């Protein structure tokens, strides 16, 4: 019997590369997607050597509308079917909403929302028909906490909303596919060591964070894999972020927002002091 195959988007770095390693360690073949093909090839070689799994390498720009169809076609052209999907590729859209071009915001939504949904829409019917599938959508803890200027300045005004949609989408699709052995989960990480904060220009701010606020990409991928296998719809990795999200559920919204403002001021003061 052929091994299962999972598409991992954004596999050239950070959380996506960790998800690829996690699935490969469980015996899944991989379809690795990102723009930096050289990195995907290196990862594929590493996964073959360590776990004996095969990879399809797909260089694609997921801010383009035709990318999802091209990705699925590349997998089918390799003679494979899609049993798993990790929707993970992403970058922020730094800058205030009113000062950025709409074309940039639209590109952000294509990358962070529309193409996540389009890929799921392409692969979920086959999974349902065959009676097996695993879909993970990488959201963010920013979807579960009050928004803060510091976050939206670096990741984008639409970032928390885009990530919120992925949680509600995961919940709804999970329900829709219940009884078909197709599990859908959202994983909502907090600050995670990766290239994300370099790409968004937030490295100096993030490096002011207390160390216990920082997750590793491996922690996120392990938590996400465990959640989807168990059929858990939403997983927040890390004890600190579990505590914060639980707290935000019991605090009145204005109090939560006031705490975020205070934290933001502390971060700004620390960043200023270190310059
Ligand atoms: N790091 C955090 O603190 C954090 C927290 C919560 C949620 N997240 C989410 O986690 C996900 C992964 O981020 P990360 O932290 O692992 O960041 P990362 O290290 O910068 O990785 C981002 C990945 O996405 C790919 N990517 C970016 N733009 C792309 C495009 N237009 N087309 C195709 N691939 C693209 C990148 O590959 P190429 O550049 O090679 O294309 C890279 O593989 C994102 O959705 C992010 O929103 C991150």
For the structure shown, list the relevant keywords:
275 residues, 11 helices, alpha/beta, seven-stranded parallel beta sheet, Rossmann fold, binds NADP nicotinamide-adenine-dinucleotide phosphate, globular, 12% strand
In short:
By secondary structure, this protein is an alpha/beta fold. It has a single domain, classed as Rossmann fold (3-Layer(aba) Sandwich), CATH 3.40.50.720.
Overview of this protein structure:
This protein has helices at 14-25, 37-51, 67-77, 102-130, 149-155, 159-176, 196-199, 203-206, 217-230, 239-250, 253-273, and strands at residues 5-9, 29-34, 55-59, 84-87, 133-138, 182-187, 234-235. It has 275 residues and is α/β, with parallel strands linked by helices. A seven-stranded parallel beta sheet has the order 3-2-1-4-5-6-7, sandwiched between helices. Helix 4 (102-130) links the parallel strand 4 and strand 5. The protein is globular, with a radius of gyration of 19 Å. The model has no long low-confidence stretch (mean pLDDT 92). Residues 10-16, 34-36, 60-63, 88-91, 111, 138, 140, 189, 191-192, 194-196, 199, 217 line the site of NADP nicotinamide-adenine-dinucleotide phosphate.
Low-confidence stretches: none
Structural category = alpha/beta
Binned, the helix content reads 40-55%
Q: What ligand molecules are bound, each kind once?
A: NADP nicotinamide-adenine-dinucleotide phosphate
Give the biggest beta sheet: 7 strands, parallel
CATH superfamily: NAD(P)-binding Rossmann-like Domain
| Strand order across the largest sheet | 3-2-1-4-5-6-7
User: What is the overall number of helices?
Assistant: 11
**pLDDT averaged over residues:** 92
CATH C-level class is Alpha Beta
**What is the CA-CA span between the terminal residues?**
58 Å
Task: Give the strand content.
Answer: 5-15%
Number of domains: 1
Radius of gyration: 19 Å
Succession of helices and strands: EHEHEHEHEHHEHHHEHH
CATH architecture: 3-Layer(aba) Sandwich
Q: How many beta-strand runs?
A: 7
Coarse shape: globular
CATH fold label: Rossmann fold
InterPro entries: KR_dom, NAD(P)-bd_dom_sf, SDR_fam
Organism: Glycocaulis abyssi
Family: Belongs to the short-chain dehydrogenases/reductases (SDR) family.
EC number: 1.-.-.-
């Amino acid at each position: 019997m052929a091994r299962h195959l999972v598409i991992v988007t954004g596999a050239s770095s950070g959380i996506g590369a960790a998800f690829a390693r996690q699935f490969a360690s469980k015996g899944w073949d991989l379809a690795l997607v990102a723009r930096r093909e050289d990195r995907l090839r290196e990862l594929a070689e590493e996964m073959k050597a360590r776990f004996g799994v095969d990879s399809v390498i797909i260089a694609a720009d997921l801010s383009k509308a035709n990318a999802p169809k091209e990705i699925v076609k590349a997998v089918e052209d390799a003679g494979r079917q899609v049993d798993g999907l990790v929707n993970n590729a992403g970058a922020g859209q730094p800058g205030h909403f009113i000062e950025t071009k709409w074309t940039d915001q639209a590109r952000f939504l294509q990358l962070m929302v529309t193409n996540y949904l389009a890929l799921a829409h392409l692969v979920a019917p086959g999974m349902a028909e065959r009676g097996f599938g695993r879909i993970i959508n990488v959201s963010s803890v920013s979807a579960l906490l009050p928004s803060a200027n510091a976050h939206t300045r670096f990741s984008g005004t639409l970032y928390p909303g885009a990530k919120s949609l992925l949680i509600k989408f995961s919940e709804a699709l999970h329900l829709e596919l219940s009884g078909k052995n197709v599990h859908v989960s959202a994983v909502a990480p907090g600050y995670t060591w990766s290239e994300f904060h370099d790409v968004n220009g937030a490295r100096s701010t993030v490096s002011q964070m207390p160390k216990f606020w920082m997750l590793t990409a491996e922690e996120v991928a392990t938590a996400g894999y465990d959640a989807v296998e168990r059929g858990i719809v939403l997983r927040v990795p890390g004890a600190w972020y579990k505590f914060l999200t639980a707290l935000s559920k019991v605090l009145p919204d204005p109090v939560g927002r006031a705490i975020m403002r205070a934290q933001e001021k502390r971060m700004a003061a620390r960043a200023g002091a270190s310059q």
